[in-house]
Every structure is written in structure tokens, then in C-alpha cells.
Q: What sequence folds into this?
């Protein structure tokens, strides 16, 4: 239970604002264990490989934290499987969690989780446009094998100042948009803070279930700013900055002090030149730093074990591209240079007593430099409501340099994507995509909850890039405000990594993570169905996925194929929103979500046997396993309900109240199995019971 104590404490902290404590629920196992695009109200045809989402949809979703989250919305779309209860982990068409790329104004975000994974780091207020691409990738999209969430931030207002402030269960803050120089220079800003550290401390005296947890502390925030300069009618510059941090610490009993932390720092300078109605040129340079660490201050006997495991990625990027848009012909091409410095699983000595991990001695670095020169181009033929054909290609020249091993490698890696969409009739058509993609880094998943504590390591001469070949074919139909899409996909993956010692991050780092990785393959096949009804009063969506995903590794499970951990065979999501009443000053609406997902897989011992030590008469109990992922967890079922009230007082400062009930059925969905040595039984661990949320927003 120790490794989940802080997670349970976090969930329980909701009682301070909501009046309803979340707790860990256990139940015995009886059996023997053998491409979103923001659109307006008008229904528009979607592009093959892209999921249609409006900004208003994800901003009204009910969440455990009470704040809107685009990742939670994407988790309800076809082809997407979720990770642990309430987490921001998602798996697209059989890929791993690290196979998905998320970018903010074109800059990758490697640490996307916030508040232990229960929300993401991007505030909904800063997002102006979003694409969720799962196939038929453009030539600009690379270094991924599953999906791309492309988030574009809003420019500040050039004519007048505006803003808003808000408070919810676990987050409060605000955003502002204002002209610095009217019609020339604008500023857009956002800041979110979490009082979760104070909630921890307030909750601690109220329950004996947390007696083993002492001095809980947390610092959680994200900050964003964007300057946009309209030089003239054709030229513009923008500067984007983003920073987020999650820092947690607590004492476990009288024996140890635990620390977790991760952070993002992003800066980008971009340039746009609109030569005329057809030609557009863009360029940019960016810096991105992601760091995470886990530390423990513990005394065993007379020995101090004050150790932390730190990882970071520093990435520099420079790019330039040209776009040509005619009536039918569309063309784009560009070049990019990316240099990334990886330093995964570096150990260092630390001192305790503070929420921050203070270094006592320098870390022993394991740095790998990865440089990639990229050339890309695509040609598209498109006629509205008739057809779209696109061919995209990328050529990557990658060079890696492992400083600790004096190992250097350089190789060419091609990528290609095809897309076709044909309207047989005005409201009915066929679509297909084909993709061959590569990813030049791996994510070693140490914690299956969506936290940003996984190890991100580069591909090199020892572990080559991940590769995926994917095909999709389907049909679509539109009738008024109704649209339906049905399709099937097949996907083959290679170069996948399996982190054999994922449950022991500390021992893995000390012993060397490279010795605990196996490289293998995976396959995934699935059927996807999506129905949407778009309206001003009533909106509904039904998404269903049937999929079969597996993994094969030479040194795992005796080389036999086994199901992927989050191979959820059936996934059904039904959501709806209805506007009850509305006028110029007041509007009521209700929304709901029901989700059913087949249970994920766990690896558990099939039994035990007794063995003697080499010396002495002592005996030890040893486990034996019938296979990897040999236990199928129960189905995941959850219903959420929400209500939104928008109102004005005297026509000024519009207010919005969002009420939500997460897990309305109060179903304790298990995310993990653990063995209780006292009761000699296996038990299921769950986090969230029924949990209300509230968010109040005031426009300034």
C-alpha cells in the first residue's frame, strides 16, 4: 500500500472543498488467480484520421478536479483506451502511452499530467484551436507512432482588455487578454494554482486512515504568456512562454520521507509571413525542458539511504516552412533541425526536511545527445464536398552520441502517409489512410497511472526507433445535424520496449536501466464507430471501439504473445448535453457521460512454492507465474453528470457555475491488485467513489 498512499491521500483531499471524502476501496478476489478541429455550430465534414471536437465540448466535461481538460475529452473518442482510474493516460489504436505526441504551438510537451495525472497541464482558456490526428498524418507531424494532439494558443486581444478568474475543487486562477499597443502588440496570459497542499494538511486530522502519512506538502501550478506583434499586414511575430510544476512530499510513518516532482519549461519565437492569398511562410525557434525526479530519505539501521533518481530532456528546435494554397492544389514543404539532450535515471544524494530535494552531491550523468535534421513535403488535391487526396513524406537524418559509452551512430529514417476521402454522394463517402511512422525516443512506463515519472530515453545504436505501419478504411455519412463514421484499422508495431523492472524505479536506475529492457513487436486490429448529433439545444455523441492488441518480446513470457496491459476489448462512451432554458441573461444546461470499458490486464502469481536457502535451514516462499498479464480485471463502468449555469448581473461581468458529480454510480473501479499478507488474500485497489465538483468563473 505504501506506493499508493500519496495517490489515495490526493483523492481524499477533495473532502475539503466538496464535503465528500474519496477513499481507497478494497474487495477480495474470490477466484484463484491463474485530430480535433475547433468548429462553429455548422456541421462540417471531418478529414479522415481527424476527430471533430469543439472547444465548448471539453470545457463542459465533468472531471474529478472540477476543471476542464481536453485530454479527458479525447479519452472518450473512438480508438482511444484509458489508463488507471481518473488518470490522463491514453492509448491510441494499440500504441503505448509514450507513442502519442502533444504539442503546444508546435513545441512538444513531454510532461502533460497535472495533480498526479488527474488533469493535464494546459488550461482550457489558452487553447484556440486543436487537432487530434490518428492517421493520415501531415508532413509536419513526426516523431510519433500513434497520435498527435496539436494545441494552438490564442492571441491576445488587439483592441480591448478582457479576462476572467475562476475557482474549482483543486485549482484556482485566471486569464487575461489585452492590447499593449493597440492594433499592434497584444498579450495573452494565464495562471493556475492548486491549494492541494493546504487541503492535504486540513484533511490529515479528520481521518485515521491517513495516520501513516505525515507532513503532506504540495506545490502545483502552471503559467502561460504570449506576446503577438503585428508588424504590418503581411508580417507578424509571436513569443510564447509556458511553465508548469508538480512537487509533492510526505513522511511515511517514522521510517522515510518521500518526494515526487516534475516540470516543463517552454519558450518559442515564431514568425509568419503572408505573401499573398496563396503563399504563406513560417519559421520558429524553440526551447523545451522537461524534468522529473523521485527521491527517498530513509535510514536503515545505521546507514543513511538518501537517494533521488532524476531525469531530464533539453530540446532545441529550429524550423522553416512554406505553404501554397490554390483552389484545388495545396502544397507545403519545410526543413527542421532538432537537438535533444537526454539524461534518464541519474542517481544523486539528497537531503530532506524540505519539500524541495536539496542535492548533497553531484549526479552521475548518463547523457545522450540526439540530433535530427528533417526535410518534409506534401501535396494535396482537395475540392470541398467532393474529394481530398494527400501524400506526405519525411526524411530524418538522426545522429546519437552516448557520452558515457563513447558510442556514436548516424542513420536515415524515412516516413510516409497517404490520405484519401471521396464523396460518393453529397452526404455519403469513403475514406482511407495509410501511415508508416517512426519515433526516435522510447518511454519506459514505470507507473501505470499517467504520472510524469516515466523514463524517456532516446533511440540509439542499442535500441533503435519505434516503427508503426497502420491502415484504416471506412465510410461516413452526414444528414442535417447528424453524422456517422464507421471504419476498421490494422496496425503493426516494432522496436517496442518492455521495461522489465518497471515496478522498481530506484533499483532500475542504480543497476542500470539498459539491462532491464527487452525489444519486441505488437499488433492491433479494431473496429471504430462514431455517431454525433450537433444542435444548439441538444448535442449527443456515441463512440464505440472493438480492438484486439498484443505484444511479443523474446525474453518476456517465454517469447509467447500476450495481451497488452490496456487491451480493453470493448469501449463504449455515450455523452449528451441539453440546454434546458436560456435568454439574454441566463442559461441552464445539463450534460452527462456514461462509459463502459472492458477491464485491463494485471500480472499476478499463479501460486507459491517453498524453497531452501543455499546455506542453513531457513525456507523462503517463492512465486511462480502462468504468464504475463494473466488476470483480466473487472469492467470499468462510470457515469458522470454536470450542470452549467451562465448568468449576468446588470449586464456586466458574466458568471458561469459548473456543478458536476463524478462517478455518479459510486462504483469502485479497481485499477490495481495487491496482496494482503495479513488476510492472505488478493485485494483490488480503487481510488474514486462518488465525487462532486464545482467551478465558478467570473468574466472581467
A:
Amino acid at each position: 500500500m505504501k506506493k499508493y498512499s500519496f495517490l489515495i491521500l490526493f483523492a481524499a483531499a477533495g473532502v475539503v472543498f466538496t464535503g465528500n471524502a474519496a477513499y481507497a476501496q478494497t474487495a477480495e478476489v474470490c477466484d484463484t488467480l491463474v485530430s480535433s478541429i475547433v468548429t462553429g455550430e455548422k456541421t462540417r465534414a471531418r478529414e479522415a484520421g481527424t476527430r471533430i471536437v469543439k472547444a465548448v465540448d471539453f470545457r463542459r466535461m465533468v472531471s474529478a478536479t472540477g476543471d476542464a481538460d481536453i485530454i479527458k475529452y479525447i479519452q472518450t473518442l473512438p480508438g482511444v483506451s484509458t489508463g488507471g482510474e481518473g488518470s490522463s493516460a491514453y492509448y491510441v489504436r494499440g500504441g503505448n502511452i509514450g507513442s502519442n505526441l502533444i504539442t503546444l504551438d508546435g513545441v512538444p510537451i513531454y510532461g502533460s499530467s497535472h495533480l498526479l495525472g488527474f488533469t493535464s497541464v494546459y488550461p482550457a482558456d489558452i487553447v484556440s484551436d486543436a487537432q487530434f490526428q490518428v492517421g493520415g498524418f501531415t508532413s509536419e507531424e513526426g516523431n510519433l507512432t500513434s497520435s498527435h494532439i496539436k494545441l494552438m494558443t490564442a492571441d491576445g486581444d488587439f483592441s480591448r482588455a478582457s479576462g476572467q478568474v475562476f475557482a474549482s475543487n483543486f485549482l484556482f486562477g485566471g486569464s487575461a487578454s489585452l492590447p499593449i499597443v493597440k492594433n499592434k502588440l497584444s498579450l495573452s496570459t494565464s495562471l493556475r494554482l492548486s491549494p492541494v497542499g493546504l487541503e492535504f494538511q486540513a484533511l490529515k486530522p479528520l481521518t485515521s486512515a491517513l495516520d501513516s502519512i505525515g507532513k503532506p506538502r504540495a506545490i502545483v501550478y502552471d503559467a502561460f504568456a504570449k506576446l503577438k506583434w503585428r508588424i504590418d499586414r503581411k508580417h507578424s511575430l509571436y513569443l510564447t512562454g509556458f511553465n508548469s510544476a508538480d512537487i509533492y512530499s510526505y513522511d511515511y510513518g517514522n521510517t522515510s520521507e518521500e518526494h515526487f516532482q516534475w516540470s516543463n519549461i517552454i519558450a518559442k519565437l515564431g514568425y509568419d509571413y503572408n505573401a499573398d492569398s496563396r503563399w504563406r511562410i513560417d519559421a520558429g525557434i524553440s526551447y523545451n525542458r522537461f524534468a522529473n525526479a523521485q527521491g527517498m530519505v530513509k535510514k536503515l539501521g545505521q546507514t543513511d539511504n538518501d537517494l533521488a533518481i532524476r531525469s531530464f530532456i533539453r530540446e532545441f528546435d529550429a524550423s522553416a516552412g512554406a505553404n501554397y494554397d490554390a483552389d484545388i492544389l495545396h502544397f507545403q514543404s519545410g526543413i527542421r533541425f532538432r537537438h535533444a539532450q537526454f539524461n534518464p535515471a541519474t542517481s544523486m544524494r539528497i537531503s530532506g526536511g524540505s519539500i524541495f530535494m536539496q542535492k548533497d552531491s553531484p549526479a552521475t550523468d548518463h547523457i545522450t545527445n540526439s540530433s535530427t535534421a528533417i526535410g518534409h513535403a506534401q501535396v494535396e488535391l482537395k475540392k470541398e464536398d467532393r474529394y481530398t487526396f494527400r501524400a506526405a513524406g519525411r526524411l530524418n537524418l538522426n545522429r546519437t552520441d552516448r557520452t558515457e559509452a563513447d558510442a556514436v551512430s548516424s542513420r536515415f529514417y524515412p516516413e510516409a502517409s497517404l490520405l484519401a476521402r471521396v464523396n460518393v454522394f453529397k452526404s455519403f463517402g469513403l475514406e482511407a489512410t495509410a501511415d508508416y511512422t517512426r519515433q526516435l525516443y522510447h518511454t519506459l512506463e514505470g507507473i501505470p497511472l499517467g504520472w510524469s515519472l516515466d523514463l524517456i530515453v532516446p533511440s540509439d545504436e542499442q535500441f533503435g526507433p519505434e516503427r508503426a505501419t497502420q491502415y484504416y478504411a471506412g465510410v461516413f455519412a452526414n444528414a442535417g445535424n447528424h453524422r456517422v463514421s464507421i471504419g476498421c484499422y490494422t496496425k503493426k508495431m516494432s522496436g517496442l520496449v518492455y521495461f522489465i523492472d518497471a515496478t522498481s524505479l530506484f533499483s532500475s536506475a542504480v543497476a542500470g536501466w539498459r539491462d532491464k529492457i527487452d525489444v519486441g513487436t505488437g499488433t492491433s486490429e479494431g473496429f471504430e464507430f462514431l455517431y454525433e448529433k450537433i444542435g444548439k439545444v441538444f448535442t449527443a455523441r456515441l463512440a464505440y471501439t472493438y480492438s484486439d492488441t498484443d505484444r511479443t518480446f523474446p525474453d518476456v513470457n517465454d517469447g509467447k504473445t500476450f495481451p497488452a496491459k490496456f487491451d480493453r476489448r470493448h469501449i463504449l462512451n455515450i455523452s449528451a448535453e441539453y440546454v434546458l432554458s436560456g435568454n439574454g441573461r441566463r442559461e441552464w444546461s445539463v450534460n452527462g457521460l456514461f462509459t463502459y470499458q472492458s477491464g485491463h490486464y494485471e500480472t499476478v502469481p499463479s501460486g507459491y512454492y517453498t524453497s531452501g536457502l543455499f546455506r542453513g535451514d531457513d525456507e523462503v516462499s517463492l512465486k511462480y507465474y502462468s504468464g504475463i498479464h494473466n488476470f483480466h480485471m473487472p469492467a470499468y463502468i462510470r457515469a458522470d453528470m454536470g450542470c452549467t449555469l451562465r448568468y449576468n448581473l446588470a449586464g456586466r461581468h458574466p458568471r458561469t457555475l459548473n456543478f458536476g458529480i463524478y462517478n455518479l454510480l459510486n462504483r469502485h473501479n479497481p485499477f490495481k491488485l495487491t496482496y494482503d499478507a495479513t488476510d492472505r488474500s488478493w485485494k483490488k485497489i480503487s481510488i474514486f467513489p462518488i465525487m462532486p465538483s464545482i467551478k465558478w468563473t467570473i468574466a472581467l
DSSP finds six helices and 41 strands in the chain.
